[in-house]
Predict the 3D structure of the following.
Amino acid sequence: MREVSGNTSAAEEGKNPLKQWTGKKLDWLNCVAVDGKLKHGMFKTAFTIIQHANAKTGIAILSDRVISDKTNISVAEVYRHRVALKKLGWIRWRRSRTALQIEPLFERVDRMSEELESRRQQREVARIEGALKRKRKFIASDETRSAQIITSD
């Protein structure tokens, strides 16, 4: 996965800012999806928030009612999900006189990206080990003894 923290490389600076923001949003969403502490409704709430986040400010201006309409979750439940997302470190918000401004937080993305990479590596190891088990060669003419498979690091 690409690095999504606040530090941008020289190569990233030359990219289209909207593509950068879209990639950052997708990385955030992937990491939120991996968080085992989130319930399904919390993910739906987070998804709606990140959909509305502005590329320049990084802030989504929307009400619990809008989130409720888009997720088919009650307003009270949306509020509880928003509070839980805040406690888990995925968002923060502030109320202005006219709106609720919700900001997705990207601090946990690097750690969750590492978790995703670890899981991918574990799948790869399991896939290779499974393939080795299935590909045993029989060397005896009666096919009763399997060959030893020698692997090196």
Summary: The CA atoms of residues 12 and 20 lie 7 Å apart. Strands lie at 60-61, 91-95, 100-104. DSSP finds six helices and three strands in the chain.
